[in-house]
Amino acid sequence: MSVEQLIARDLSPAEPIVDWLDFDFDTRQVHAGEYPDLNTGLRVPPIALSAGYVFDSFDDQVDRFAGRSIDPIYSRQGNPTNSVAEERLASLEGGTVSVAVSSGQAAISSALFTLAQGGDHIVSTASIYGGTRILFGRSFKRFGIEVDYVWDADDDAEWERAIRPNTKAIYTETIPNPRNDVTDLRRIAAVAAKYHLPLVVDNTVGTPAIIRPFEHGANIVVHSTTKFLTGHGAAVGGAIVDGGTFDWEAAERAGRSFPLITAAPRPGLGSMLDRFGTGAYARAVREAVVNDIGPSLSPFNGFLLHQGMETLSLRMERHVDSSLAIAAWLEEQPEVTSVDYTGLPSNPLYDLAQRDYAGRTGSVFGVTVRGGIDGAREFVNGLRVFSRMTGIGDTRSMIIHPLSSTHATFAPEINERLGITPGLLRLSVGLESARDLITDLRAGLDRVR
Ligand SMILES: Cc1ncc(COP(=O)(O)O)c(C=O)c1O
Predict the structure, then answer these.
(1) How does DSSP classify residue 296?
(2) Residue-number span of the structural domain to which 334 is assigned
(3) Is 100 a pocket residue for ligand 1 (Cβ < 6 Å)?
């Protein structure tokens, strides 16, 4: 038998597995993705520290390398500890398959590199995480992928002007920071569907405990799992979730090509779409991008991620309860000129926040103090419980001054348009007692003149 004949043997296609489908969110966050350890009976899925895998036989090696078996070859492609986290997250988001990677930035890059290549174009909403704007403006640009921004997602003419024949994705976030300006996903999903474009949504700040973008028309979800999903600020990580909903063939017919998903990767092997169906996009992310470029997640961090997710809904409940109380209190303080929390009735996006986010718009928001940058400096230096650091979404409360940090490299007119003013601070409300946090914030405000 020749190598070609061996590779050409007919094997049944592997199906993506999503378990625990009929159970409630709180049950799935504890159990989805777990597997019994057949050797030891360990209850908690262990940390599988092995760079590679043993092949069952010569033919098994052939099948794995031929892409006809979903069993991994090497831990750069996948790992049992990370699989627990991947299946759990896919279940919580309501997607088909997820791929864990080494950071949120790696998730965004891998998600979009699977859709776009040099010469292609992406349209993003303007209010996104500063690091993503830097990624788009520097590395994506160097690789020949251009990103344009839409400032008013309700403006059809703006979308019309931004979307081009070579556009390959629409990108947005559920709850952007620092302004907590929640996104109308259904509105953007309608635009994406009209132009046959996959809608990629960063749900880091929302988390599936608050909003599940697939239920609002998104096709792909990305996460910085560094934040609420892992939850304790101890491990950097990221993930991409395939909603399994995008019609790749219709997009091709409409002139938008996605070769990593719809084209045969080599003679004799079907396309990802032929072989993996509703998990085709995730398979392309894993095999064609993550395996090539190599941003795999350490199984140690994968362990912290699947364990962190076990308590996600409980933590988010506390994060949001405290944020609602703190935002309402801040709004009453004389040293505060504005609070950007869309869960507050005074916010212009309050109705949208109620409709799509049940009024519970996470725990990352902006507060502006009197006195511009001098007021901000005094306020921040007067805090003890809030940590002065970059980062959001862990047990500890954190504060940062966006204009001199996350947004320091942007042109003044961009920051002005984004509302990043000298007196604006970003808060990430943690799990400490809300009373202590308010006492801490009061001590900081006492220093503001
Ligand atoms: C919304 C959002 N997306 C992505 C990232 C990047 O994630 P990471 O720091 O894990 O690379 C961040 C980081 O703050 C973020 O806030």
Answers:
(1) B
(2) 312-445
(3) no
User: How do residues 173-219 score in pLDDT, each as one tens digit?
Assistant: 999 999 999 999 999 999 999 999 999 999 999 999 999 999 999 99
Whether the pLDDT of residue 10 is over 70: the answer is: no
305 with 316, same domain?
no
Is 224 a pocket residue for ligand 1 (Cβ < 6 Å)? yes
This prediction's pTM: 0.95
Domain stops at, among 289, 309, 329: 309
394 lines ligand 1 (CB under 6 A): no
Q: E-strand spans in 165-210?
A: 167-173, 199-202
Same domain assignment for residues 287 and 343: no
CB of 295 closer than 6 angstroms to any ligand 1 atom:
no
Is the Cβ atom of 392 under 6 angstroms away from ligand 1? yes
Residue 178 in contact with ligand 1 by CB distance below 6 A: no
Measured in degrees and rounded to the nearest 5, phi and psi for residue 263 equal: -95, 150
Point out the ligand 1 atom lying closest to the alpha carbon of residue 391.
14
Centre a 10 Å sphere on the Cβ of residue 212 and count the other Cβ atoms it contains: 23
Residue 413 confidence (pLDDT) = 97
Residue 42 confidence (pLDDT): 86
- Atom 15, ligand 1: residue with shortest CA distance: 129
pLDDT, tens digit, for every residue of 224-237?
Answer: 999 999 999 999 99
Q: What residue's CA is closest to ligand 1, atom 9?
A: 104
Give the sheet arrangement for strand 336-340, strand by strand: 336-340, 364-369, 424-428, 398-400, 387-388
**What 8-state DSSP symbol labels residue 138?**
I
CATH code (residue 431): 3.90.1150.10
CATH code of residue 225: 3.40.640.10
